[in-house]
Amino acid sequence: MKNIAALALISSIALVSCKKETAKITKVDPKTGKTVTVEVPADSVAKVAENPAIKDSAGVITQTFKLEKGKTYPLTTYQRDVKTMTDPQGKSITATSESTDEMNFVVNDIKGNVYEMTLNLVAKRNSQSAQGKTVVVDTKLALPKEDDLKMIWNVNKALTGNKLAMKMDTKGNVISITGFDAVYTKVSNAVGTLIKDANQKASVVASLKESFNEKVLKDQFHKNLMLIPKKGVKIGEKWSTSENADASGAVKVTSNYVMKSLGNGTAEIAVTGGIPKKTEKKAQGPITHSLSSELVQNGTIKFDESTGWITNQNINVKTTQIETISDGKQSQSMKSVSNSSVMVNPSAK
Q1: Which of 123, 146, 262, 293 has the fewest other C-beta atoms within 10 Å?
Q2: Per the domain annotation, does 199 fall within a domain?
Q3: Origin, by domain of life (predicted)?
Q4: For 25-62, what is each residue's pLDDT tens digit?
Q5: Position 281 in a domain
Q6: Mind giving me the DSSP string for 12-71?
Q7: Which domain holds residue 112?
């Protein structure tokens, strides 16, 4: 009897030790849209710091940054556009373009709540494909042979390999970015090897200064790195932002966000929205010219729960534009459809 009891005890211990531990995560049920708490195997849950950067406090999720000195944090942006144009006879032409900007941030020091970082501009790549021909301008490759591509490569090559100094606080506010003058000088020297006219060279550098400066980069990093509102959000809660789609500000792109889930080491946000369909008509005598356009976007953005840093973004954007000319009896239309993938850190899906 003692042996049987001992065996029974050993069996019960074995059963207890084999029972898998579980952990609970909060997420939005895609079928019902309701917030639910589900149990998952504990070994599938990524290790999260005791006091993570993105945390749930009494049901309200807030975002800060908890970066480590000496660590490198990637921010590679990639965009792929496939544009198809269809003429009134129904013939179509498709062109594909891709662009990649590779950069990373190294935390050199932490003073109080401010990170002193080096922003490394690592590489740039652009490609265009149409009618069976592809051209590539890549700073990791040699200078292209085509004369019309040499300028782009020289400017991109001069832009990469540079370092900017950046200060950002733990709340994601970019305090300063410095070091642009050295980059402008480097680009000016590179352009000077191809353009001898001083005015043309100055024009290229001036154009660069408009698109590559402290304000532009601050705005870009704020959009990429800080999405959760400062007041915090609950699982399933929605919020929206709006920005100009044209220079006049008459057309705006709306982005609608939903806090989808927090757990397993990841904070996930769903994105929808775009530009509602709009049609403009102009008449001149018997001829009516109309232009309709629409933009629809959807996708997800993921952040590391421990550090607050963006790990991946994958947003699909579809733009449709139809131009029609009619005399009241017959009409002709030109249609343009662009399908784009806008990604951040695409290799970290």
Answers
A1: 146
A2: yes
A3: Bacteria
A4: 555 554 555 555 556 555 444 455 578 999 999 999 99
A5: no
A6: HHHHHHHSPPEEEEEEE-TTT--EEEEEEEGGGSPP--SS-SEEEETTEEEE-----TT-
A7: 67-169+174-225
